[in-house]
Write a structure and sequence with these properties.
By secondary structure, the protein is mainly α. It has one domain: MFS general substrate transporter like domains (Growth Hormone, Chain: A, Up-down Bundle), CATH 1.20.1250.20. 83% of the residues lie in helices and 0% in strands. The protein has 15 helices and no strands. Helix 6 packs antiparallel against helix 7 and helix 10 packs antiparallel against helix 14. The two termini are 26 Å apart.
């Protein structure tokens, strides 16, 4: 096989294009997060209902990725990713014209379907095209695009909403994502190690079951779901906590909290490289422990404690994500895109379920409840990491 080698022009182009694609995808997905308090006021809805503008996209995205990954096995990685980026950018622009909250939710659901193509396929593309020796670094760089995209979408929407309105915020995000989609189309090298398969849904379903019978994959999926559920819960309800008493920050100032995503950009690439060198299990344990420490730090009342704790959690979370997602591609011997899409199905299901349940916890117990809820999720992930370590030592498949 002909691989993309670390340091080559093609390797840099692949990383640049997937970085741009990831930026567009996650800017669109998360641009509504700093707008949640605005939606609550504008449409006279509760925080739980407001959070659905994010949750419906992520849960639909999670399910749609299974179909998108299967389609990419037959149609190719590049076409599926390109259609995903262009259609989701257009839908984001259209969502700015929503006449009411129900229509906004409907468009956000459609965006979830459209967004599925890139995250369902990108890790499979990297697993096939990049030399395994450099896969951890490539995956880390791709995930850093996720973090910068999530950060960019949140900052753009938060600041534009402050000076204009939430409608202009969504339109600006869609236009920016459309530009990134065009860059993706220009830079992504064609697949050299991809061989199209006939679109046999029965065979593809059997391959999904094969992945689900692998206990190590199951544990990685569980770890992703727990940590992502905690991550989205922290950021969702930090927007409410910081915009209310005793902090009373404006939406633009609250959106600055998302600059902490830059810590994830660094940790995903750095921990990804360390995982290649020192072992994935060690990095999962280290990163998960940092996430636990972070959520505990957010408990005290001072603003600096909450910000510092969210930052530590972000650093640990993206270290876990970079390590676990790269490991999935390594463990899956066949249909790597499907294995990656299952990982992301659990990942985004954790986001949707965790984010919505967190709203109930917030309404009932405030920030103290959020800390307890996220701590429980992280502890489950750490137990799963311990079990994964045991399987590694025993050589279980």
């Amino acid at each position: 096989m002909t691989y993309l080698e670390t340091g080559s022009v093609a390797f840099r182009k692949a990383n640049g294009s997937l970085f741009a694609g990831a930026f567009a995808t996650f800017a669109i997905l998360y641009c509504v997060q700093p707008l949640l308090p605005i939606f609550s006021r504008q449409f006279h809805i509760t925080p739980v209902i407001s959070s659905l503008s994010l949750s419906v996209s992520t849960i639909v995205l999670a399910v749609a990725m299974l179909a998108a990954a299967s389609l990419s096995e037959a149609w190719g990685r590049r076409p599926v990713m390109l259609v995903s980026l262009l259609s989701s950018s257009v839908l984001c622009i259209l969502s700015a014209f929503s006449p009411n909250y129900l229509s906004l939710l409907g468009l956000r659901m459609l965006e979830g379907v459209a967004l599925a193509g890139l995250p369902a396929t990108a890790m499979g593309y990297l697993g096939e095209e990049v030399n395994p020796r450099g896969l951890g670094m490539a995956m880390g760089l791709y995930i850093s695009g996720n973090t910068v995209g999530g950060l960019g979408g949140r900052l753009v929407s938060g600041f534009v909403a402050e000076v204009a309105s939430w409608r202009w915020a969504l339109a600006a995000t869609g236009i920016l994502s459309l530009i990134c989609s065009l860059a993706f189309a220009l830079w992504l090298p064609p697949s050299k190690n991809f061989f199209a398969k006939s679109l046999n849904w029965k065979k593809l379903s059997l391959s999904l079951l094969e992945h689900l019978r692998n206990p190590r994959l199951w544990l990685l999926y569980l770890i992703a779901a727990m940590l992502m559920g905690g991550f989205v819960t922290l950021y969702n309800y930090a927007t409410f906590a910081l915009s209310g008493p005793p902090y009373n920050l404006s939406s633009s100032l609250v959106s600055l909290v998302f600059l902490l995503y830059l810590l994830g950009t660094f940790s995903s690439a750095w921990i990804g490289r360390l995982a290649d060198r020192y072992g994935r299990t060690r990095m999962l344990l280290l990163s998960g422990t940092l996430a636990l420490l972070g959520v505990i730090i957010t408990q005290p009342l001072p603003l600096i404690a909450k910000i510092a704790g969210i930052g530590v959690y972000t650093f640990g979370f993206f270290g876990v994500h970079a390590t676990a997602s790269g490991w999935v591609g390594n463990l899956a011997q066949n249909n790597k895109a499907q294995a990656s899409s299952l990982y992301l199905l659990f990942y985004y299901t954790g986001s949707s379920v965790g984010g919505s349940l967190g709203g109930l916890v917030w309404s009932a117990k405030g920030w103290n409840g959020i800390v307890q809820f996220v701590t429980a999720l992280v502890l489950v992930a750490l137990v799963a990491t311990g079990l994964l370590s045991m399987l590694q030592r025993t050589g279980a498949k």
